[in-house]
Design brief:
The chain is an alpha+beta fold and 367 residues long. It has nine helices and 22 strands. It binds the ligand C=C(O[C@H]1C=CC=C(C(=O)O)[C@@H]1O)C(=O)O. It comes from Gordonia sesuvii.
């Protein structure tokens, strides 16, 4: 596989407020996170980029690139190319998703679990075909942080497919001993009317249901980071942050690693999947998701990079699409956290609002 790539080919791009990191060329490939972590720890590879799956038993798409150039600026944004969807199939259909939410609320009421994130997928065929750098720039253009990523998962899977997205949610960033996380959970669709939009943000900040949905993620990260870190700084109240399509509750977490040999990839594998994409307790939520959803593949995992010093950044793999070799067929997903107080129709509407991130970047009229 590696031989068909030149040393200057981008196989990974991550853009955001911290700048742009690229993975260039393919030194080695890994479909297993443990093997990639071991190669990095032994010094046999100098960096790892790519995607880890939602379900740790599924294949990862990780590459040891030939080089890992970084620029201080995020990607230059661009406007989407106009496209039409020649086929659009919801999996499951919206009514079934709502029924699944109703079922999950009942299981939460029965005490089986506290939170589960249920997702739905949409399979789309677009015309004209997608150009990967063009779509990446359009994804960066859809949010003020210029968040966007593109991962050549075909370099590992051998199917010439790409994973692209614009995730606002930072699973973790490691710089030396300093670890920062920025969990997102709790959402409200945005409005084109500025008065309605501001009111939606205020209502989100005051919503007990969204605060509780958010708290599960923050508590999980605190519990997982506590044995690994000192000076854990976890604000008690989340902030409200916008993407192009939705308002979110977000909490900036900061901590200091006790053991500097723990890498950003080690942390990504220890933390993912958080209750922002899975649920609480993790095992019960993962079991319920396995029972009712199709396998998620790379959606709900993490996308990022890690260098030889252990520094790196991993984003939660949401607001994304998996683009096929024909550059026309793709699957996109959106999920939402279900807690005891969730309303099934609101949850369906929330997934529709989240899907607009990808549809807008594809230039599809999503109204
Ligand atoms: C699971 C997704 O979003 C997560 C991140 C932010 C807000 C979320 C929510 O409010 O449910 C989700 O936890 C998704 O976009 O597919």
């Amino acid at each position: 596989m590696a031989s068909s790539y030149g040393a200057d080919d981008d196989v990974f791009v991550l853009s955001g407020p911290h700048g742009t990191v690229r993975g260039r060329g393919v030194g080695r490939t890994f479909d297993d996170v443990t093997a990639a972590r071991a190669a990095l720890a032994s010094g046999s590879v100098r960096a790892i980029t790519g995607a880890i799956p939602f379900d740790p038993s599924d294949p990862a798409a990780l590459v040891a690139p030939i080089s890992l150039p970084a620029e201080p600026a995020p990607l230059a944004p661009s406007s989407p190319v106009r496209r039409r969807a020649t086929s659009m199939i919801a999996r499951p259909d919206p009514r079934t998703h709502r029924d699944r939410v109703i079922g999950a609320i009942k299981r939460i009421a029965d005490g089986e679990l506290d939170k589960v994130v249920l997702a739905r997928a949409v399979d789309i065929v677009v015309e004209p075909a997608v150009d990967v750098p063009e779509l990446l720039a359009a994804l960066a253009g859809g949010n003020s942080d210029r968040n966007a990523f593109a991962v050549d998962v075909g370099a590992v899977f051998g199917d010439d497919s790409w994973l692209l997205g614009a995730s606002p949610e930072m699973l973790l960033r490691r710089r030396g001993r300093v670890v920062t996380c920025r969990p997102y959970a709790g959402s409200a669709p945005r409005s084109a009317d500025p008065t309605v939009d501001r009111a939606a943000a205020r209502a989100l900040a005051a919503s007990h249901k969204d605060q509780s949905e958010h708290r599960f993620v923050v508590d999980y990260l605190r519990d997982r980071l506590a044995p690994l870190c000192s000076d854990l700084d976890v604000p008690s109240t989340p902030e409200v942050h916008p993407t192009g399509e939705v308002w979110h509750l977000a909490t900036p977490i900061r901590a200091t690693l006790r053991d500097p040999s723990i890498t950003a990839l080690d942390l990504a594998s220890a933390l993912s999947p958080t209750p922002a994409v899975c649920g609480t307790p993790t095992d019960a939520a993962a079991q319920l998701i396995r029972e009712i959803e199709e396998p998620r593949g790379l959606y709900g995992g993490a996308v990022g990079w890690c260098d030889a010093s252990g520094d790196g950044q991993w984003m939660v793999t949401i607001r994304c699409l998996h683009l096929g070799a024909d550059r026309r067929s793709l699957r996109t997903w959106a999920g939402g956290g279900i807690v005891a107080q969730s309303d099934p129709q609101d949850e369906l509407d929330e997934t529709t609002a989240k899907l607009a991130t990808v549809l807008r970047a594809l230039g599809i009229d999503h109204a």
